[in-house]
């Protein structure tokens, strides 16, 4: 594992789901406590409810998790034990999208790129600045499960990452009032990261389903001479919409745009989503030469783009927005799935070349 200088370090977690959770909770106890405070305020700002009410809402998802991914409940119990908080507090953190995204959606610009026999994934994660210091990099080696890296928030079991089978996933939040039967978004992301291959990863979206809308950009290095495969999945309680690669590229921001979606749902995107998608398409389809050398620095350059600011791919503090809606880029990640390598920049990718590189090969 290569670990250059970075504001973040890797948290190494091993063992059963409960053991992984207990160590996660013990190491990041103070960050988890702060995350509960942050989301307590966020729930008040976005949906007008107190933390106690959010806990009540989260309890409704426990049975669905028990049906679709029961082992992860053991891990959440372990996190709660290690952090010395209630299990329901950890459940609430992991269901925060289902509780809050009826009114709020982060920024998040994501793309996949297949070039020269290699499959890449990349994204910015845009959210409220008060979660910046609660970002964690988890390297999990579970008993009998694929080793994985997940970049997310302390106390939460999964978000953006890859595993040693060459499976990777990115996330775009979708603002919608739809919520049905399925796995909560962050639970589904972690289940994908424990999958051995692309068919089982796809089954999380098509069989288990996801209880509220989001976009999962799913990719795999496991396609022989083609060098990888990717698909955009606009997940929801029904059959997800699919976005197939065009010239080896899939792009997505924070609105639904898959054609011929079997079970369409309504979204309520903010004004910046479509300009960011258009800019991603321009950078990748029009301005990136087909024979260009691709590496992490070039892709971080795309994630650092400021054209159209403040509605740009790289998001900065915008005083013209209401305080509760100000979203900034909190981390950027570039994944080379073919080489099982994830590279992270904590904070805005334009502000520093310092990065954390984790290799699972």
Strand content: 15-25%
* Count of DSSP H/I helices: 11
CATH architecture identity of the domain at 109-359: 4-Layer Sandwich
CATH superfamily of the domain at 109-359: Penicillin V Acylase, Chain A
CA-to-CA gap between the ends? 9 Å
Characterize the overall form: globular
Structural class estimated from helices and strands: alpha+beta
Protein name: C45 family peptidase
Pfam family, one: AAT
InterPro entries: C45_proenzyme-like (IPR047794), Peptidase_C45 (IPR047801), Peptidase_C45_hydrolase (IPR005079)
Domain Peptidase C45 hydrolase: 117-349
What does this structure look like?
The protein is of the alpha+beta class and 361 residues long. The protein has a domain at 109-359: Penicillin V Acylase, Chain A (4-Layer Sandwich), CATH 3.60.60.10. The protein has helices at residues 17-27, 29-47, 51-59, 62-68, 70-83, 87-94, 96-100, 185-193, 198-208, 273-286, 296-303, and strands at 10-15, 109-115, 118-127, 135-142, 148-153, 160-163, 167-173, 214-220, 229-235, 241-243, 249-252, 328-336, 341-346, 356-359. The strands form 2 sheets. Strands 1-4-5-6-7-8-9-10 form an 8-stranded mixed beta sheet, covered by helices on one side. Strands 11-2-3-12-13-14 form a 6-stranded antiparallel beta sheet, covered by helices on one side. Strand 4 and strand 5 (148-153) form a beta hairpin. The longest helix has 19 residues, at 29-47. Mean pLDDT is 93; it is low at 1-6. InterPro entries: C45_proenzyme-like, Peptidase_C45, Peptidase_C45_hydrolase. Pfam families: AAT (PF03417). This is C45 family peptidase. Residues 117-349 form the Peptidase C45 hydrolase domain.
């Amino acid at each position: 594992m290569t670990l250059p200088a970075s504001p973040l370090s890797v948290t190494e977690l091993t063992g059963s789901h409960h053991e992984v959770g207990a160590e996660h909770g013990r190491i990041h106890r103070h960050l988890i406590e702060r995350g509960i405070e942050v989301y307590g305020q966020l729930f008040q700002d976005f949906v007008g409810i107190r933390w106690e009410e959010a806990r009540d809402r989260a309890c409704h998802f426990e049975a669905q998790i028990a049906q679709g991914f029961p082992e992860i409940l053991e891990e959440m119990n372990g996190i709660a034990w290690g952090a010395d908080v209630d299990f329901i507090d950890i459940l609430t953190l992991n269901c925060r999208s289902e509780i809050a995204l009826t009114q709020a959606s982060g920024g998040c610009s994501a793309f996949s790129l297949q070039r020269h026999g290699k499959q890449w994934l990349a994204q910015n994660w845009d959210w409220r600045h008060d979660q910046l210091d609660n970002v964690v990099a988890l390297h999990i080696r579970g008993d009998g499960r694929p080793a994985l890296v997940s970049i997310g928030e302390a106390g939460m079991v999964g978000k953006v990452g890859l595993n040693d089978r060459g499976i990777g996933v990115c996330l775009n939040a979708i603002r919608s009032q739809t919520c049905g039967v399925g796995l909560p978004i962050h639970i589904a992301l972690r289940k994908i990261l424990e999958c051995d291959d692309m068919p089982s990863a796809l089954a999380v979206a098509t069989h288990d389903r996801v209880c509220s809308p989001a976009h999962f950009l799913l990719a795999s290095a496991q396609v022989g001479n083609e060098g990888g495969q990717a698909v955009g999945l606009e997940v929801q309680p029904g059959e997800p919409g699919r976005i197939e690669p065009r010239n080896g590229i899939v792009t997505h921001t924070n609105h639904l745009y898959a054609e011929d979606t079997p079970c369409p749902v309504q979204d309520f995107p903010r004004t910046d989503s479509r300009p960011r998608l258009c800019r991603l398409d321009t950078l990748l389809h029009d301005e990136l030469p087909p024979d260009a050398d691709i590496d992490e620095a070039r892709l971080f350059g795309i994630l650092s783009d400021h054209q159209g600011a403040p509605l740009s791919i790289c998001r900065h503090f915008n005083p013209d927005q209401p305080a509760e809606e100000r979203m900034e880029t909190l981390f950027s990640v570039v994944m080379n799935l073919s080489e099982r390598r994830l590279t992270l920049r904590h904070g805005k990718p334009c502000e520093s070349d310092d990065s954390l590189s984790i290799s699972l090969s």
